[in-house]
Amino acid sequence: METKINNAMIALVQGDITREETEAIVNAANSGLKGGGGVDGAIHRAGGPSIMEECREIGYCSTGQAVVTGGGNLKAGYIIHTVGPVYSGGNRGEADLLKSAYLESLKKVTQNRLRSVSFPAISAGIYGYPPREAAHIALETTINYVKNHEDIELVRFVLFSRDIYDVFSDELKKMI
Length: 176
Fold this sequence. Notes:
Layout: E1 2-5, E2 8-14, E3 24-28, H1 38-47, H2 49-58, E4 66-70, E5 78-82, H3 94-111, E6 116-119, H4 131-147, E7 154-159, H5 162-175
Parallel strand pairs: 2-7, 3-5, 3-6, 6-7
Antiparallel strand pairs: 1-2, 4-5
Helix pairs in contact: 3-4, 4-5
């Protein structure tokens, strides 16, 4: 599914983010930037050891923030590592932190003069964020950002499962 917002194409695809050819991909990282399971582990495995070396130099990333490394062996030249919140019922600022994770990642795209980026469904896996709420925040934040930033031409949401893809698709249809 695709839709044009301002100068940007917003696209939803089911697939493997490590195979993306956008200029940057976003990693759903942990605060210690130590690799891990899910998307984070897959990106580190596919990208090779240079990513971990750069992460060690950076050292830490707070929840809701983002840092940038090279793409290692990936087709994407950059990885934007962001830390989404662990869902704890929704009353501990999780929505604001998730919005910030997307927003800070998009700002890194602009700051690095990139035109394309691919996102996973941040926090919607092992961090337990309810998928529909996570999709709404992700899409709303992205749409609002690209309305005011003509530099970004393509934002892809690369969703690992059909279930998550369907949720994102339903939410995007409500917004356009």
